[in-house]
Each structure stands twice: as structure tokens, then as C-alpha cells.
Amino acid sequence: MQIIAKCPKCFHKWLLEIDAADRRITCKKCNNLFKVPKLQEVSEAIKVVESASGTIYADQDGKIYG
Fold first, then answer.
1. Strands (E), 1-66
2. Average per-residue pLDDT for the chain
């Protein structure tokens, strides 16, 4: 299984192995260090997004604002 992560600085998308979840990685395009969320955080965020009627934002730490 693989996951997709997007660098919050340059927005480049990376296809990563599942063991990258809950780890900090360095973007190979811009050298920005960012955290890949835990798989549980991703599924929780998806539930909130699907049930939301307005605009929401989830940051790189998995915190949800809306």
C-alpha cells in the first residue's frame, strides 16, 4: 500500500510507502521538512470533510479548522 503526501511549501505530490505515515520527510524538490500525518488522522479528516457543508482546512499536523 502507498500513500500520497503533498509538500505544504511547493505543493509537489509524492507517492510514499505506508511506513512514511507519522514521520517527518524532506521534500526532494524544495528541501522543506514536513510531517506526513498518521493514517488514523487522515481517515478522521476525510469523515469531517465529507460531512462538512462549508469550507474547512486541515493543517500538516492533522488539526482541522473550519
1. 2-6, 13-17, 24-26, 33-35, 57-58, 64-65
2. 82
